[in-house]
Design goal:
The structure is a single chain. The chain is an all-alpha fold. The chain is built from five helices and no strands. The radius of gyration is 23 Å and the shape is elongated. The N and C termini lie far apart (about 55 Å).
Length: about 150
C-alpha cells in the first residue's frame, strides 16, 4: 500500500492564526470583565438595599448592622471593582499588542495574572504561554521590532 508523504506545515501560518486567536480571546476576556463589573454593581445594589432597609431587621434580635459595616462593604466593592477594571483594560491592551506583534513580555505578564481567573482566564493564560514562548513566535516578535527601527 502506498503511504502518502507527510503534509508540510507552514509554521508561520500556524503562528499567525494562533496569535490572531489569542488577540481575539484577550478582547473577549476584557469584555467579560465588563460583565463582571456589572454583576458586582448589581450585587452592591442588592446588598445595600437589604442591609439599609429597616424593615428587614424588625424581627431580628440584634437589629440592623452598624453603619460602619456598610462603609467597609463599600471599600470592598470599590477595591474589587478597580481590580476588575484593571484586569479588563490589561487584557484588552494585551490583545491589541498581540495583533501588533509588540509587547510580548507585557502579554506574558497578563497571561500570568489571567491564570488566577479560573476557568476562562486560566485557559487563556496557559495557551498564551504556550504560543508566546515558541521560538518561531519569538522570531516574529523580534522581526517586528527590527522592522520598526530604533526609537519606534
Amino acid at each position: 500500500m502506498n503511504e502518502l508523504p507527510p503534509l508540510l506545515r507552514d509554521q508561520r501560518k500556524v503562528d499567525a492564526e494562533h496569535l490572531k486567536l489569542l488577540g481575539v480571546f484577550h478582547y473577549v476576556l476584557g469584555g467579560l470583565s465588563v460583565v463582571g463589573l456589572g454583576f458586582l454593581c448589581m450585587h452592591w445594589a442588592f446588598m445595600h438595599a437589604i442591609m439599609g432597609d429597616p424593615a428587614t431587621w424588625q424581627n431580628s434580635k440584634g437589629g440592623p448592622p452598624p453603619p460602619q459595616m456598610l462603609a467597609v462593604f463599600q471599600w470592598f466593592y470599590l477595591f474589587f471593582g478597580t481590580v476588575i477594571v484593571l484586569h479588563g483594560v490589561m487584557n484588552t491592551l494585551s490583545g491589541w499588542l498581540i495583533f501588533r506583534r509588540r509587547g510580548r513580555m507585557f502579554s506574558l505578564i497578563v497571561a500570568g495574572l489571567d491564570c488566577l481567573m479560573f476557568p476562562f482566564g486560566t485557559a487563556l493564560g496557559v495557551f498564551t504561554f504556550i504560543v508566546l514562548l515558541r521560538d518561531s513566535v519569538q522570531e516574529v516578535y523580534g522581526a517586528a521590532d527590527t522592522n520598526r527601527g530604533p526609537g519606534a
